[in-house]
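Standup notes
- DV: blocked on the single-chain target, sequence here:
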Amino acid sequence: MNEVTGASGYDDCAGPTVHPRDADRPGVGDGAIVGLALVTAIGVWTGDPRVATGAALIVGASIPTARRAGLRWLVLAVLVAVGAGLHARQSWADLAPDVVGPFTGWGRLIDDPQPYPSSTRVIIEIDGERFEMWSRGRARQQRVRHWRGGEWIHVRGERVELDAERAHRVAWQHVVGRFDVEWASDVAPGGPVARASNRVRAAIERAAEFIPAPHGALYRGLVIGDDREQPRDMIERFRASGLSHLTAVSGQNVAFVLAACGPLLVRLRPFSRWAATVAVIAWFVVITRFEPSILRAGVMAGLSATAFMTGRERSPSRILSLAVTGLLLVDPLLLWSIGFWLSVGATAGVCTVGPWLAGRFSALGPIALPLGITLGAQVGVVVPSLLVFGRLPLVSVVANLLAVPVAGMVMLYGLPAGLLVGAVPAVGPLAMFPARVGTKWVDTVAMLGARLEPGPPWSWVGWVGVLVAVLASLLWGRFRRR
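- DV (later): unblocked, structure below
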């Protein structure tokens, strides 16, 4: 679960970097920035400004800072917590359609259609409000699956409210109701940004045709997070082996995109380089449809690039906390996205626990860092994984060590190769051969991992064994140093 983001000098898990001019400048430490993210999340979760204020006071009292800096931080924390609580309350209040009943007219697709075994789901925006629309029947599904995000669809149907349970499940997507479609006729292209992103995704889809199924769908998932066409058995084996994160765009994808652009970025002057870096990040976020994990990664990469240009401190915990705080203040409903939980948790584990463990595994040589990072990511996602999925695959440690480097190669190579093949299909068989081999390897690792994963209670026994081995290694290292 590699959530590291960075290239061309920008890395959201880089070590602390402080410009000399800021060395003597008083301010708050990383603990205070982490605390700010914590009180923001509490304010969003409770939706109660009074609880949020109390949390800010408690957290502020527990963080040691200079008197003047601490007072400024406390005032900021209270204001942020109260604002987060009020915004969250209003966001939930807005999750109800202003108008229900018949509608005939144009609606804009928010995302690409999501196919299911017997239906296809799309999110359509009508009069500024989002509705989920389900299409059933083979003929209708075949037509709907050719739609793309950002396009305009002429529809007729009925707008209805969702029941409470369903409304809560789709709240993070800002869906306010369901649209029961009667018919859909004309399709019109979206704006310039939507058309540009759809052209890129279409090029990747054409390139995926040169990779036999189902690995072509896996290639699309690794490169741009498009897992819509992956068969159910592939999804299950990736979950069972702990590799499902590979098909969700994250910091690793952003890092490889910036790495691919690195030779051009390094030739620019500092400000132009920063502007071009932010533009590349924004472009990739648009292409990947603003998924919660890519929003987190994109904001972190942008903050890291800004800190790098201005010479400010860019420690991992500080960048992650600022990204979480900003995203939740802008969109409090992100807190109810499991993808956001997993992305933030994995990044926190990779940037904090991972390097700490790697330093204590130094006797293992070249595998110390990847092993530490993998275990750190597992620590970061253990709570949401158990609460939502009810499992934490034991084989995920070995599976990630075997699959992540190859998946990274596919991500780094796959996007420029896909764009080339989309423009010049004649080079497809040759250009896509490395991606074909890479996706085959990753899927094979997932398949073997799913077969070898023990069921409960043996998986829990195995994790206890891993914990004992890690503790023994740490104690042995301390003993040798003494």
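- Follow-up: The longest strand covers residues 175-188.
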